[in-house]
Structure formats: structure tokens, C-alpha cells
Amino acid sequence: xxxxxxxxxxxxxxxxxxxxxxxxxxxxxxxxxxxxxxxxxxxxxxxxxxxxxxxxxxxxxxxxxxxxxxxxxxxxxxxxxxxxxxxxxxxxxxxxxxxxxxxxxxxxxxxxxxxxxxxxxxxxxxxxxxxxxxxxxxxxxxxxxxxxxxxxxxxxxxxxxxxxxxxxxxxxxxxxxxxxxxxxxxxxxxxxxxxxxxxxxxxxxxxxxxxxxxxxxxxxxxxxxxxxxxxxxxxxxxxxxxxxxxxxxxxxxxxxxxxxxxxxxxxxxxxxxxxxxxxxxxxxxxxxxxxxxxxxxxxxxxxxxxxxxxxxxxxxxx
Amino acid sequence: xxxxxxxxxxxxxxxxxxxxxxxxxxxxxxxxxxxxxxxxxxxxxxxxxxxxxxxxxxxxxxxxxxxxxxxxxxxxxxxxxxxxxxxxxxxxxxxxxxxxxxxxxxxxxxxxxxxxxxxxxxxxxxxxxxxxxxxxxxxxxxxxxxxxxxxxxxxxxxxxxxxxxxxxxxxxxxxxxxxxxxxxxxxxxxxxxxxxxxxxxxxxxxxxxxxxxxxxxxxxxxxxxxxxxxxxxxxxxxxxxxxxxxxxxxxxxxxxxxxxxxxxxxxxxxxxxxxxxxxxxxxxxxxxxxxxxxxxxxxxxxxxxxxxxxxxxxxxxx
Lengths: 318, 318
Known about the structure:
By secondary structure, chain A is of the alpha/beta class.
């Protein structure tokens, strides 16, 4: 039986600067609105991979909300848990890449409709059907959202469901009230932990990689997937370590790659696929994500990932 | 002695769609951020015309706030009364022209830093030096702003200063709590009233133009300037009616034209120029505004207006 994966968090309209540079201090060419928000990208990728998928969130009563709802609906996401706030605008993020690959943002999330994300009646209904909950650190930007996410984790775990956690945290977020404690709490409840790079050491400071992994697995995680960007990824459980190289692609826009990777891995894991296969699908999903401009434009179906992987295998064999 | 003109209200970053269409439902080419907000455009034009000018407002601690502060400062506006809110984002408006010339907006003003516009200590200091206050209807989007503007009107009038009022109201705004009453209040205190088209009849419903004008002048206004867009403008006081045709220009972007017209007229009026000359400068200012993309990009210096008017006269004489 197919498991329903649910996520909670921010939904944004993203506006992308056409040219590299530092900031938004004069009129420049832009493109948007693109549907966005890390949890929204995650859930869109899960649905496109074929996993039953639903989201709890909140958008404004404006075009930017419609852009997101339409896209998620079209891609098969159950949006019944996404509220439309009559007053606050849909969150937005302007993104500009600097020449060094880092990004400059001008954004409004906390004081947008996303800041009003709550467990509404419709949200509770979809939570009541969820087999798995995916929590992302980006969604923890306000104490009320932390509370909502913690209560959802509780509900799912109590019913015997599973939880995955992707810290996806900018370092400054850890200093926000309640965030560090909440991250520890999510980690305690999680079955699957998906850190990127240094995030592995968030709660194992001063340790080396094997020691940090061992400590985290001792804490009760079923598995850890460490994302290393263009360096590939590694899967760890009590018995195994499996390394997955990254697929080589031309990077057009890296936004959303980690979210797509995570969504595809979680979907495979829920479907009981072997970790080797799950890692390969996830890496392909992350690779395809960076080849398209726009955060949610690079999500892929399972058939697209199969085709991409077999093409990559053929090229390697030459 | 040069009189200081002050305005209060919203400051926005504007993002303009490159192509006509109805709304923001898919990624489209955009350009921005442009400094914007009707009162900000007004005060920028007043300063560029050479009038001592100051503004009370509030921006966020972000690039969109910097874009506005830098532009206003560069053009000579005293920005000491503009607060920087540490939390809320600078207001923004996405604008797309429909083929019929009407506009579709996606915006956030009320829940942006502009919604926190208050009489701070710095604001009170600049209000204490103001000889003239210009109030715009767009600035009345929240009860606290109405209160701030009414209190500022009181301060300026008590000290023997003058007030101008430009309703600049979308019809739906009149239904917001307190707006209709506030408009009546501003009209009662105003020396100069600058309605556009149908706004003349806001408080004289069912009357024809001469009757509405007569009633308004009886109410205590020194003068009325009726803006008719591409149909020109008319000046009325107890003795005279003066008509001013519009200058013919190629319309590129009409946003801000009425604000520029108003700022130039008010500046001329404060400088004691004859109404014929004030109308001519104001019409030139509105005409030049529509020839540039961007709401505040079309503001003009007095020298630029002189050159434009003499060019137009030469062409007419041919």
C-alpha cells in the first residue's frame, strides 16, 4: 500500500535575477514568479516521483498563492491542508547569484501568509491520513511553526508513522528562539536524517564523521543520508555505508537540488527500495534539478529519472 | 524664504512586468526594484523641482529600503523622518499592464514596514519644520496611518502652515474603515485640493462640475486643480477658471504622472507662481513622467521642464 508523505512549511513565490551580482539596489532584469519554498519543492518532487503527497501550509489570496497551488495540484500534491489567508500576502524571495556562487536574498516569509501556517481543521484531516512526515529546518522560522511541526511529529509517531528531518538551516537560524532545541527534538523523533555537509555535526561538535554518524545512529535513527552536493552522497545505517557519486551535469540553478534529492530518497525509502537504488534515484533527482532555472522547475518523474540514469550509464560505459 | 513641503505615506519597491497581460500566474520577464509609492514619487518630484522637501515613512532593513532612501536622498529629499523597521520588509508592488491600459497589482503595503509609519521623534522634528503638508489618499490604508496623517495636518495648520490633498483613491479604499470620514476631514483642512477625474464628485455626488467646484470652494478651499489625464487639467479659485491642455507625448508608463503633476503644482503654488505658470509646469511634469519606464524615473528638474515646454512651444509654432 502506498504511503502518504506529508510536509509542513513555507510556500513562496521566487523572483530570480537574470544576471549575477550583489543585491537588488537598482532596476535589473528579473524572472518570476516561480513556485518555491523548500518544503513545497520537496513535496512537489515526491508527488512527481509517484508518491502520495500532501502539504500543510498557507498562502495569500493573490496570484503568487495561485501559482503555487496550481503547480502543486497539477503535479498531484494534495493541497487540502494549504490554507488561503485573506489578509497576508504569499511569501516571496528575490534571489540573485553572486559570481562566487553564493546567493543574496530579499525575502518576506515570517510576515507573510506562511507565518500563519497552523493546524487548521483541513490540516488535521490530512495529518490524520499521513504515514510519514518530512520536517525541514527552513520551516522553523517562528515559534508557532515550531510548535505546529512538533505537534504534527507527535501525531504521526503516535500512530506508528515515520519521520524524516532535513535541517536545511542557515547557520543564523540556529540562533532564533527555540530553533536549536526544536532541531534536537526533531532529531530525537526522526527515523531518517538528511543533513547537508556540516549539518551532520550540528549535534556532534568536535567529532569526526564516523564518530558523529555512530552517535546519531545510537540515538535511534534508522538511517542517515549525508548530502555532499557535487561530491555525491553517503547512506549510513547500523550495518552499512553506501557511497553514491554525483551525476555530472551542467549547473544552471542549484536552488532546490537538495530538496529534490531528499524527496526522492524519502519516497524510495517509503516504497522499500534498496538504499543503493534509492541513493541513485535521489542523486539523479538532485542532478536534474540543477539543470533548470527555477526552484521547482527541475522536479522529475520516475520515468524521467530512469531515462536520465540509463543515459548516464551509457555514457560512462563508452 | 523657501517653504518646506512634507508628505507622509507608503514607500515601495516596484517590479514591472515587461509584457502586457493579466496577472502573475507564471514566470514572466520583470524589471525592478524601482523606487515607488505615490507619496515618495510626489516628494521626489518636489525636491527635483527645487522645493525643500521631506518625507515621513518607514522602510524595511533590506535592499528595497536602500533603493528608496538612496534615490530620495540623491534627489535632495530630507529623509530624516523615514524610519527603518528592523523586522518588517519594505513594501512592494508588482505591476502588469493589461492590453486595455488598466493595471494588475500583486502587492504588500499594509503588512510591510509602510504599515508601521508613525510619528517618531525624528518625524516630529521634521514635522515641526514643515510649512506645507501634502496628504495622499493612498497613504490611508490603515487606521493608524489615518491618525498619524490627521495629527500631522493639525500640527501644520495650527502653526499657520498649508495643506494640500490628493485623494488618489481606488474606489474600494473608500470602503475601508475610517477612510471616507478621513477624506472628509482632510478636505475640510485643505487649502489645495487635487482630484483626478471622478474624484471631484466624492463629496458632491449627483452635482455637475461647476456646482461641485462651487460647493468645494465654499467649503474653504483656496483652489482646486482638477486633473484629467491626457485631457489636461483645470484650475479653479473663487475668481477664475484656467484650463491647461495636456502636452502630447508618447506614453511609455503612466504610473506616477499624477503624483509628479501634483508635486510640481504644489511647489509652484508654494513659490507664489501665477496659476497659469504653475499649471503649465505641472502639465509638463506629468507629461515627462509618462515617457519613462518606472514610477519615479520620470521626475524632472525645473530646467528640464523649461526645456521641454520651450520645445513644445516651438513645435506648436511651426
